[in-house]
């Protein structure tokens, strides 16, 4: 199956109300690590993830992706992969996709048209748990994705 890369752009907007909330939540989450590590983490990740994963942006992004994917499937058969900044954003994108296309969802790995593929453990947040799979379960999804005739059409990583 040929591979095509098509970048999609979704603007990032800063909601002024979130700035203080982001800082407070970050302080709570990083209270037990050294100040240098905490500062580095803050600069690299916290604000960027909040901006990239903002609800309005994800709504726009998913609507654009689904429209684009539909038009692409009209022209040719294929599959797609969405690469997200974080596991949390991947789960939020999945929720929006299955809200728009409920028939694409399945709790079973051997069924469904859309899946999130992430690693994790039992201590991860509740919204991530349905998407955390062992290596064997991830391999099953990889094999499904590689088969052009398999109904798995969209993976989110």
UniProtKB/TrEMBL annotation:
A single GO BP: DNA restriction-modification system
Keyword Hydrolase annotated: yes
Taxonomy, superkingdom: Bacteria
One term of GO molecular function: endonuclease activity
First and last residue of the signal peptide: none
Regions annotated as coiled coil: none
Statement: the UniProt record of this protein carries the keyword Metal-binding: no
Assigned keywords, A-Z: Endonuclease, Hydrolase, Nuclease, Restriction system
PANTHER family: TYPE I RESTRICTION ENZYME HINDI ENDONUCLEASE SUBUNIT (PTHR30195:SF15), TYPE I SITE-SPECIFIC DEOXYRIBONUCLEASE PROTEIN SUBUNIT M AND R (PTHR30195)
Protein name, UniProt field: Type I restriction endonuclease subunit R
Originating species: Amaricoccus solimangrovi
């Amino acid at each position: 199956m040929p591979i095509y890369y098509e970048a999609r752009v979704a603007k990032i907007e800063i909601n002024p109300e979130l700035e203080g909330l982001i800082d407070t939540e970050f302080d709570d989450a990083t209270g037990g690590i050294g100040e240098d590590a905490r500062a580095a983490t803050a600069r690299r990740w916290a604000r960027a993830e909040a901006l990239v994963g903002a609800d309005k942006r994800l709504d726009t992004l998913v609507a654009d992706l689904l429209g684009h994917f539909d038009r692409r499937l009209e022209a040719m058969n294929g599959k797609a992969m969405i690469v997200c900044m974080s596991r949390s954003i991947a789960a939020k994108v999945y929720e929006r996709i299955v809200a728009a296309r409920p028939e694409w969802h399945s709790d079973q790995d051997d069924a469904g048209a859309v899946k999130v593929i992430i690693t994790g453990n039992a201590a991860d947040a509740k919204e991530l748990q349905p998407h955390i799979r062992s290596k064997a379960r991830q391999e099953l999804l990889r094999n499904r994705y590689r088969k052009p005739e398999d109904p798995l059409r969209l993976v989110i990583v």
